[in-house]
Design brief:
With about 210 residues, the protein is α+β, with helices and mostly antiparallel strands. The chain is built from 6 helices and 8 strands.
Length: about 210
Amino acid sequence: MKSGLLVGIGVVILFLIGCGDGDVVIQEDPDVQLENDSIAIAEYMSEKGYENYSTTPSGVRYLILDEGTGDPIDESDIVTFDYIGILLNDTIFDTTVKAVGDSIRAHFLEDSVGLADKTVHETFLALYYEDKIYSPLTYTYSVSGWTIDEQFIQGFTDGITVTFNQMNVGGKAIIALPSAIAYGTRGSGLLIDPNTPITFELYPISVTKQ
């Protein structure tokens, strides 16, 4: 089922090189930040051609890009899925897909030769290191939500809850999260600045019926 996921990954890999916009301005008014995030997400979705997306009460924008042709996802199903986390500047900050991580690593290894400042390259090479193990996530779906560890951000759980019950195995969805339900004012690591809206591509790859 993963073969369909890899269609277009070559395009995704090549747009990942922006690493933030330099100085970070911390917006302390959450209403203003949400408005800024909403504008940025709307522009991103429009640029990608993702029209007619929906919005959850929590603020997640989502769109089913491919319903898939495999098994449907029903309540109490155990679902295994891959994801690719992407910033609005097209930087891939996380993935469970080995082909994606390996391609990013190869790109930065090749382009790091002769560079005077290798900070960006070293960041990505550390994130997608040679022996990294990539594993899809497996959780149980229910109408009241997902049995997902609390370490996951609110927008991620909201996004898969609202998309997976509209998909089959082999499908694809995009979710876009305003910063308040992503990594908020703290950011995450070297790639996700404070107050950063983010997106995830979601790919259900198998379902176990209970």
